[in-house]
Amino acid sequence: MFRLRSVGVLSSAKIFAVVQGAVGILVGFIVLIVALVGASIAPSQPKLGMVGMIVIALLMPVLYAALGFVGGAIWAAVYNLAAQAIGGLELELETLPATIMAPPPALVPGA
Fold first, then answer.
1. Which residue blocks in the chain are alpha helix, DSSP H?
2. Which partner for 65 in 17, 28, 79, 106 could form a disulfide, CB atoms 3.0-4.6 Å apart?
3. Taking a C-beta distance cutoff of 8 angstroms, is the pair 77, 11 a contact?
4. Residue 4 phi, psi dihedral angles, 5° rounding
5. What gap in Å lies between CA 25 and CA 46, rounded to an integer?
């Protein structure tokens, strides 16, 4: 049995930023599709709202990553405080047997 006593604040923030940035790309893509469909449905209407949605869709990955960074840092700091007070998460880890692979056969020149 192992106990996770603390989490690195900066490393947690970086991981959260990458994960949330990826989510921001997916959500931004969906918003972009909705904006383009909306722009094509109403061709005679003013397009300022649709242009705004496209700009927001392009900024979403950056905004999600920034909020993920801040959220990850806050999460790690709060976890570290809680782990000091009550002991942290208990983890049960298993060691897997190492897989030994035979080397590839040597090639004989001229064979």
1. 9-41, 48-86
2. 17
3. no
4. -85, 105
5. 27
pLDDT in tens, 62-81: 999 999 999 999 999 999 99
pLDDT tens sequence across 24-65:
999 999 988 888 887 778 767 666 777 788 888 889 999 999
What is the predicted pLDDT for the residue at 111? 59
- Supply 68's token pair: 């993920």
For residue 1, the model assigns a pLDDT of 82
What residues have CB less than 8 Å from 74, skipping those under 6 apart?
none
- Can you give the residue ranges of every domain in the chain? 2-90
Residue written as token pair 């923030």 = 13
- What DSSP character marks residue 74? H
Residues across the chain = 111
Q: Which two tokens stand for residue 106?
A: 């040597």
Q: What CA–CA distance (Å, rounded) separates 37 from 73?
A: 37
